[in-house]
Design a protein that fits this description.
alpha+beta; 5-stranded antiparallel sheet; 9 strands; elongated; disordered N terminus
Length: about 180
């Protein structure tokens, strides 16, 4: 699906795109695995696996119990991430439509085929970045709005967007490249 981005004279950055299913699921999984609950759960599972492996020789039954607990814990942690990300895509058909975001100092406008929202920046507390997308975290919630980097038609648009999110959210952005990828 074609996309375009433009920065106008009012300091607005407009980005239009359509999420790809795999792109959205990968972005959501990337956020979910960074949550404290996932880290604690997978850390406990890994610890149980290590302890169980060390104890199998000396205390066989206890070692096997720890191994089983560790495997179960890891399966639950990763299973939740996989299931939640797929279900989110399936249960929210409006994610499948063309979207348009307009970012400016006053607000963020989000529109799609069946939705329109105009939000103040205070609605978003954090911005995180990875090589493929930006994620705006909804204040007081575990929800995110994902913005694929492919939606920016120029580096100037992306730089203007970065400036806006740094002014209005707690931004955890990657260092700017000295040479932009082609």
């Amino acid at each position: 699906m074609p996309f375009d981005a433009a920065q106008d004279d009012k300091g607005q950055v407009t980005v239009s795109f359509e999420y790809k299913k795999t792109e959205f699921i990968r972005a959501l999984r990337g956020v979910l695995v960074r949550r404290t609950s996932f880290k604690v759960m997978s850390g406990c599972g890994f610890s149980c696996l290590v302890a169980g492996a060390l104890l199998v020789g000396e205390l066989a039954s206890f070692g096997v119990i720890l191994l089983a607990a560790g495997l179960t814990d890891l399966a639950l942690a990763f299973g939740v991430v996989i299931i939640v990300s797929g279900q989110t895509w399936n249960k929210m058909p409006d994610l499948h439509d063309q979207r348009s975001f307009v970012f400016c100092d006053e607000s963020i406008e989000i529109s799609g085929a069946t939705t329109y929202m105009k939000n103040q920046w205070s609605r978003y507390s954090h911005t995180v970045e990875n090589p493929d997308w930006y994620a705006l975290r909804v204040t007081g919630s575990s929800a995110y709005v994902f913005l694929p980097k492919r939606g920016f038609s120029s580096h100037a648009d992306e730089l203007a967007f970065r400036e806006l999110v740094q002014r209005h959210t707690e931004a955890r952005l990657r260092p700017l490249p000295t040479v932009w990828p082609t």
